[in-house]
Design goal:
By secondary structure, the chain is mostly helical. The chain has 2 domains: about 20-95, Arc Repressor Mutant, subunit A (Orthogonal Bundle), CATH 1.10.10.10; about 95-235, GntR ligand-binding domain-like (Four Helix Bundle (Hemerythrin (Met), subunit A), Up-down Bundle), CATH 1.20.120.530. It has 11 helices and 2 strands. A two-stranded antiparallel ribbon has the order 1-2. β1 and β2 form a beta hairpin.
């Protein structure tokens, strides 16, 4: 008698993200009439308590519903139900990964990548990193977001690690911030002085690299991305 083989998918965790599950719960409440079309949803803090979820996860779910057209954010007034949508959230690829989880992933990956890259730094690479920061500073002073130079800084460090797979991973994680979910999340919750703080954190990373201190450079990269995540978590929105 043949021995049955285990189902390789039996213990596979759900690929649905937490924000999608929270969005599904909100969608169910709308469909059941708890929140009718035209109703204003409870305040963010109260709704998070009602659902038993964190405010960041709730924020991501509400933005997902806004992208779908189920709710509308009215500045200074609140979030209102616009329509009843399908039962389940659309695939992740259509709106993007969780912004908070992305920042967690970047902190882990880029911290390790910086540790690998630090001993391989050359004067030319350090000069290139300094050039990126100078360009960031000019754009911030002009009131423009220096996203391209920010990307250049991070990818220059990743390339210097000498591992093509890690370089590609850093690039893909960074570019995920252009997804619809991350774009809206960043626009709504990014602190007004966020780029000034980010520039100072980049300076600390570069200073550690210039001092040939790999462990400090790793710590500064990790701190920068952790602080970026906290700025989103603590943002009050606009």
């Amino acid at each position: 008698m043949p021995i049955p083989r285990p189902d390789p998918n039996a213990d596979r965790p759900s690929e649905r993200r937490l924000y999608q599950l929270v969005a599904d719960r909100l969608r169910t409440l709308i469909q059941s009439g708890d929140f009718g079309v035209g109703d204003r949803l409870p305040a963010e803090r109260d709704l998070a308590l009602q659902l038993g979820v964190s405010r960041p996860s709730l924020r991501e779910a509400l933005i997902a519903l806004e992208i779908e057209g189920a709710v509308e954010v009215r500045m200074g007034s609140g979030i209102y139900v616009l329509s009843v949508t399908e039962q389940r959230s659309p695939p992740i690829g259509s709106i993007g990964e969780s912004p908070v989880e992305l920042m967690q992933a970047r902190a882990v990956v880029e911290g390790a990548v910086t540790l690998l890259a630090a001993p391989r730094m050359t004067s030319e690479v350090l000069a290139s990193l300094r050039k990126s920061l100078d360009a960031m500073r000019r754009m911030i002073a002009e009131g423009t977001k220096p996203l391209d130079h920010d990307r250049e800084f991070h990818l220059t460090i990743a390339k210097q690690a000498g591992n093509g797979v890690l370089h590609r991973l850093v690039r893909d994680l960074f570019d995920e911030r252009h997804s619809p979910l991350s774009t809206k999340f960043c626009h709504r919750f990014e602190a007004a002085n966020g780029w000034d703080l980010a520039l100072a954190e980049h300076e600390a990373i570069l200073s550690a690299l210039e001092a040939d201190d790999p462990l400090l450079a790793q710590a500064m990269m990790h701190a920068h991305l952790a602080q970026s995540r906290l700025r989103w978590l603590d943002g009050d929105g606009r």
